Amino acid sequence: MAIRFEADCWAKVKENYRHWWAGELDRPLLQYTVFGYEPQCPEPAIPPKIYLSAHPPEQTAEAIVDGWDFALSQQRFMGDAFPCVWPNFGPGVIAAFSGCRLENHPDTVWFSSDGEKTIQDIHIPFTPEAYWFRRVRDIMAAAEKHWQGKVQVGMTDLGGTLDILASFRGSEPLLMDLCDSPDEVKRATEEVHQAWWKYFDLLDAVVRPTNPGFTAWTPIFSETPYYMLQCDFAYMISPEMFDEFVKPEVAASCRKLKHAFYHLDGVGQLPHLDSLLSIPELAGIQWIPGAGQKHITEWPDVLKRIRDAGKLVQIFGGGKLNTMDILADKLGSLKGFICIDDVARENEGAVEKLLQRFSAD
Question: What pLDDT, on the 0 to 100 scale, is given for residue 1?
């Protein structure tokens, strides 16, 4: 292993994130990962795929970790960035743990259920013996053993509760169920919630011996339990239905997590923002405007609403190195913000200047 991140760098990361979560850091966190360095280890026989489910069973967990190691050796971690990996099996992989079929496609993963079932017939079992759970667990265990705390091993994308339920029922039928069988939807939602937390705890236990902390598909670092909660299904429902079917489960998960974020994805989720901001235990909001929408810098009103509610804010820079400068002009202080971005090596000097401007070098 030859990763450009010394052991003492972890102490700085932990301190900065600890103060940020507590609201004690006067600057934003700036997490910039630079790509394009010469690799510091031999090229692996099996480069990791974006979706690890695309690796056939005969490709071992150790071989996949070797591919991650090779990729990390070509990166530099600037500002508040740190080396991390994410076992990506598609959003809502609990559906595959619990009986749905996992279908790999060139640029995504789908989960579907065999046959048509009514909401009354759907039950979400906790099945740690399932192939896909064991595959995720084995890769996370191999990563923990390989790096011994030098690289943060993130949680797989377990999914949003109604998103998982929609994999079993179908989105349109589930929408009808909200009206026709609300009690059954709530019963199934609670089953998903219970299974979700059992899977989370088991997978966390695999990496807990040496893992520096917690990350999810969005690598915000936390020394205490953190997750990026979501409900993409909420794009299709009213605020009243959100408060009845989504908010109670999200709030329950926030109470279990020390540091909970919500993935607010697209303008269709904006009607639910005030409801989310009213959850006391929700630490922050990730705002993603969505495909075809204006750049993140064009949404100062949304970002201000989140900040003024006392929540933390996470954005992606989208490759624009002046993102934080523009937002600082529009919003003033960016205390409580975190910007995550990947940049090419030729932009390394510009990143260094950016970090100096925000006192994050």
Answer: 55
